[in-house]
Amino acid sequence: MIEIKYIRDNIDKIKQGVKVRKAKADFNEFLKKEKKRRELLNNIESLRHHRNTVSDKIAEIKKSGQNGDSIIKEMRQVSEKIKELDKELSKTEKFLDNFLINLPNVPHEDVPLGDNEEHNQIIRKSGNPKKFDFTAKNHWDIGEDLKILDFARAAKITGSRYPLYFKSGAKLERALINFMLDIHTNEHGYTEVLPPFIVSKKSLTGTGQLPKFEEDLFKLEGLDHFMIPTSEVPLTNIYANEIIPIENLPIKFTAYTPCFRSEAGSHGKDTRGLIRQHQFNKVEMVKYTTPETSYDELESLVLNAEEILKRLELPYQVITLCTGDLGFSAAKTYDIEVWMPGQNKYREISSCSNCEAFQARRAGIKLRRQGQKKLEFAHTLNGSGLAVGRCVAAILENFQKPDGSVKIPKALVPYMGDQRIISNETR
Known about the structure:
Blueprint: H1 4-9, H2 11-20, H3 27-64, H4 69-101, E1 121-126, H5 139-145, H6 151-157, H7 167-186, E2 191-193, E3 198-200, H8 201-207, E4 225-227, H9 232-236, E5 242-245, E6 251-260, E7 279-289, H10 294-311, E8 316-320, E9 332-340, E10 345-354, H11 358-363, E11 365-368, E12 375-377, E13 379-387, H12 388-398, E14 406-407, E15 421-422
Parallel strand pairs: 2-6, 5-11
Antiparallel strand pairs: 1-8, 3-4, 6-7, 7-13, 8-9, 9-10, 10-13, 11-12, 14-15
Helix pairs in contact: 3-4, 5-12, 7-12
């Protein structure tokens, strides 16, 4: 969320930031209502001061035995006027609150201009796309042929876009989760967290999923609680409404959680396989940093995610999102895309963002510098480290063999109990 004063003082910059994001906001109405708010506050303050002053005078009049009925009547009228103005102020502030809560973050100056994903820029590539001397299959065919994935039975249990793993498929998913957590905690310095998988409306508002993206969430009936769309939400809210001593920063958390998304608006997209599911596993990374270090921390966050793909020997590319493709809360985002030979394209497997103070302001996450009374908002960052199901898909497609079996990447062999090949598994 962006502060009213900052918008007022930097109106042209904010307007441009919203424009390049292809978002809409009525700034003329905002400025009109913001001016009205200040006028109402001044009028209310003036009337209250007058009422307080006259109240003292009324007490003196009564004490002296004089008739103060006319002054008392006047003060009743003043009190009624204050109530009237308070109602008007409440209505005006409701408009302003709604305006602010729905205003996206302003892109960082380094973010390339563009309308959509076609204008994203490739930063670097790692590894060469796998080429086979046989026709590469999609991961859903590989998984079902090996009997480690069963989408038909998953649909019978729940509905479409839910996964059902068996044997080495389930084992591979679990191995990837443990592998990622070990790397991030033992080598990258993150603290492991196991957070709640259900969060409040307030927490989702803090990270920016609400109110704008409620249709993408699974809400619990009769409650203001939701299944988490990503563990970014609980991890970022750990320090909600708290003050963090600056010497404690950066704080780095990592967590495995299942994630739940309705995928509203994605009908017809990736209906097969593990790419776009209503329920999926993910290992997340979240950082709390100082404003001056947050962009260095963003670069290291991306490298942490890349390291997982390097260890898994999966080709990938890193892209920077253009202004028209940025997420609501992000000031700058890098996506990491893994090569999928069965689909003959790169697919997103991680998204790493610096939200600057946007989420911290919404969630009340402040920092205190040594020797200073004034508080600041922390910067928050988040990134997938990585999407587990998509890693399974990438491994099945990149390590498939002519006989239909799949080789297990060397880094995962210890996590698979020294299993090196996934062959056809009966069940």
